[in-house]
Amino acid sequence: MKKESGNSGQMAVRELKVRHIQKIQYETVLIMQGGGSLGAYECGVYKGLSRHGIKFDIVAGTSIGAINAGIIAGSKSGEPAKDLEDFWMEMAETVTPPLLPDNLRCIASSSYAAIYGNVKAFAPVWFNIWQGNNGSFVPSDLTYLYDIAPLKNTLQKYIDFSKLNSNNTPRLIVTCTDIKKSEAVCFDSTTEQIDADHLVACAGFPFYGIRWTEKDGRYLWDGALLSNTPLREVIDASPKKDKKVYIVNLFPHVQEDLPQNMIDVWHRARDIMHTDRTDNNVRMSKVISRYLLLMREMHDIISNASLSEDLHERFLKIEKEYHKLADYRGAIIDQITKIERSEDVHYILEDADFSAATVKKLIKQGEEDAEKALAKTKTKTEKNN
């Protein structure tokens, strides 16, 4: 009997969901994390998703994810997958020998980036040693080691910023951090004209010495300082429509082997800090969605019923509050697909490896993982139906 009761309960919720789907529009959302050169993996993921004809209503991200999202939303050629790959191949450095083993290539490329920067993205301050007070170089006066201005010039080649307006699809949402207030700052293409300064503001990671950006009277750092997976910010910015969400996770959630030395310890700690932590948001969304579906059904029944004058007046009083909850804050995450990068070997500076061989490898890995994730989602959907 308990089993029958459970099945009937599931059928009731499914019936309510069908009715809900008939009333509510969906948005398909792509969310991309920050992770330096690992952003090339996100390029591969987007290529894989595009190959299946998936169109996004919203692309969102922080740090390098915001850069990738900006190129997708404002693709100058109208072929975002191509522009994104071209951007990453231009970002790739060709000094590091491609035939080096992965670990040595990572060390060589990250060391090169630390000393010489990346001509397409960030320039070290010591290239202009005469900085500081009275024309002398004063390291204690520096608030950054790398200037991100070169990235703005590179973005001009791939983004038509005039596209990033309220009429553009996909909608662009990017996040950064207000240094003074410790608050998330969200830039949304439906409410403001986003330019290169907005995008680079999202990528000023202080622990790697990247310069902050002053924009609209605020001093801004990388959004990853508060959240490396800006799902909550997307829901807050677009609360009316339900969501089908694709999340790219650059930092492995699970690592079976324990760290063997301090370098491994720092690497794993970094992964834990930046990995996707939206599971709780998704669980809460599923619980809330059941309440909302039932609340909508109850509202429809009451609104069509013959009520006494007293009950009708009480109904009218709660009507406004009902619409606030159900319509204006009632977005449901109906489906979530996670594409997660895995690691065979762990390198602490893997996110600073811009070597051409590594960039190509990450793009290919992203494409393959996107295919696997889509196949898994399709199987799960067929099983549930």
Question: TL;DR?
Answer:
Helices cover 47% and strands 14% of the residues.
Structure description:
The protein is of the alpha/beta class. The chain has twelve helices and ten strands. Helix 2 links the parallel strand 1 and strand 2. The radius of gyration is 24 Å and the shape is globular. The N terminus is likely disordered.
What share of the residues does DSSP label as strand, in percent?
A: 5-15%
The DSSP helix count reads 12
Give the overall shape, derived from the CA principal axes: globular
H/E order of the elements?
HEHEHHHEEHEEHEEHEHHHEH
SSE map:
Blueprint lengths: L1 H22 L2 E7 L6 H13 L6 E5 L1 H10 L6 H12 L10 H15 L6 E2 L21 E2 L1 H10 L12 E8 L4 E6 L7 H6 L11 E3 L2 E5 L8 H7 L4 E8 L12 H13 L4 H25 L5 H20 L4 E8 L15 H29 L1
Helix pairs in contact: 1-10, 2-4, 2-12, 3-4, 4-12, 10-11
Key phrases:
alpha/beta, globular, two-stranded antiparallel sheet, 385 residues
